[in-house]
Design brief:
Blueprint lengths: L20 E8 L2 H16 L6 E6 L3 E4 L16 E3 L6 E4 L3 E7 L9 H17 L6 E3 L2 E7 L12 E12 L2 E9 L19 E2 L11 H16 L2
Parallel strand pairs: 1-2, 3-4, 9-11
Antiparallel strand pairs: 2-6, 3-5, 6-10, 7-8, 8-9, 9-10
């Protein structure tokens, strides 16, 4: 277990512009609709026709495949629909009880640095979890945010740890889309149909699984406050 050191984020806007729009979608959003909206909005942001957007959704149960997904990591292909996401990364699960935040930001206004952008997204998640007294951590060899589980047996001399949040992004002409997913109270058994993010030796957890009675509305408030600290004007 190697903790990756923080990279100075520096993702506040460097030039004036419209405030970031926040949108919370009611109900369950079909994945093809999400892809179409992100493509359309990113194009408008590039052309100056729309402000940056953070779009908060939940999806019906489904699996998505990133550009590095390996066929053998789709353990149960008939369990849920599988979509090619076009983002970086491997297989991941989305479903009810998981907050997906699609992040459409103009990095030309902020910082043209992919590695630092991923670190800033990790900072955003870690700051959000800290508001519920959960210590999220980054790892040198694994994208996403992890929590140590002292209540679980150690593995190979290392403390047990579970993934609580995933990150998968795509950039086109320095406008980002896709984003992050934080487990609030999803059905964790649904992750067993894939090898999540290609990592078989660690588990998956959620805020409720950690014993915290957090609602989606609670998480959204924390996401907004933490986002403003990392990406705000």
């Amino acid at each position: 277990m190697t903790i990756r050191q923080n990279i100075p984020a520096g993702f506040r806007p460097r030039s004036p512009g419209q405030p970031v729009e926040w949108r919370v979608e009611a109900g369950l959003t079909p994945y093809p609709r999400a892809l179409a909206l992100m493509e359309e909005r990113a194009e408008k942001i590039r052309g100056g026709g729309a402000p940056e957007l953070v779009w908060l959704v939940e999806h019906p149960p489904l699996y998505t495949a990133g550009t590095s997904a390996r066929p053998q990591d789709l353990v149960d292909p008939s369990r849920f629909p599988v979509f090619d996401a076009g983002r970086g990364g491997e297989f991941t699960y989305h479903g009810p009880g998981q907050r997906v935040a699609y992040v459409m930001l103009d990095l030309k206004r902020r910082r043209e640095d992919v590695r630092a952008f991923v670190a800033a997204l990790e900072d955003w998640i870690i700051g959000t979890l800290a508001r519920f007294n959960v210590r999220g951590e980054r790892r040198e060899d694994r994208v996403g945010v992890w929590v140590v589980r002292p209540d679980r047996p150690a593995r190979l001399g290392q403390p047990a740890e579970d993934k609580i949040a995933a990150i998968g992004i795509r950039l086109r002409k320095w406008v980002s889309f896709h984003g992050i997913a934080i487990n609030v109270e999803p059905d964790l058994t649904h992750f067993s149909g894939i090898v999540p993010c290609g990592i078989a030796e660690h588990g998956v957890t959620s805020l409720v699984d950690l014993g915290l009675p957090v609602t989606m509305a609670d998480l959204d408030v924390a996401l907004k406050a933490s986002f403003d600290e990392v990406f705000g004007d």
